[in-house]
Amino acid sequence: MTAEGLDEDGFIAREGSLGRVQEEFAPVVHYARTLIGEVFGGGGPDSDRQLHSAYLYGSIPRGTAAPGVSDLDLLIALRREPGKDDRSAADELEAAIDSAFPQVNGVGVLLFSASTLLSELERHDLGWFVACLCTPLLGDDLADHLPRYRPTALLARETNGDLGLALPGWRQRRDAAGTDGDRLRALGRGVSRRIVRSGLTLVMPRWGGWTSDLARSAEVFGRYYPERAEQMRLAAATARTPTADPAVLALLIDDLGPWLAAEYAAVHGMKTTRG
């Protein structure tokens, strides 16, 4: 019997496809494809912005998005290293899509060079992300140049073995935020999503499967750490419905997060240092 999230050969199956995009989100995806091509399409090899490829990820290509609740997640790969102008263009693209479609609650664009995504250093982090969690939208699929992946300790270490490095920044942004709105803008879903996914990858090699579903991730984690199961369920709920409640943020950033980072380091070690 094939384990959850794996193909018949035991590799993590690529999740999502354009065929799974729900009817409500089809116009959003079509507009995003068109706009990306216009903004980053570029021309010849000397173009300032030459698009290599673009991808969807998250709930929309998985077919699990909720209108008015879910965001649109995009990854854009350029043929050169992105610069400030590229980031500014991506910010404008985010705003244009978000303002045009009420069915999406925010738009996020990740911007990288194709060479970074294919690099040996990123083979088990960004490379895995593209190959397994991203759905091709435009251009040549980088997954054709990447290996297939199993739910190993190496993959666990390289995807989330740097959680501890994120904690000081989270605390700084929380402490600098003066209002609930500031805290939501500074931390949003990011903290809780990262914690839930770190919890899942911590136990992934023992479980032997993969899922991006947050509630399912919390459930799987709880099998191996029942004393932390309730906290992880709260993190999953917060990832779906963000809150600025100081008590919840304190639990995630000052309690569950530090424990998880320490346990991760003990079980899988630290992620390879980026230069």
Automatic annotation (TrEMBL):
InterPro entries, per the entry: NT_sf, Polymerase_NTP_transf_dom
Polymerase nucleotidyl transferase domain location: 53-84
Pfam families associated with the record: NTP_transf_2
Name of protein: Nucleotidyltransferase domain-containing protein
Organism: Streptacidiphilus cavernicola
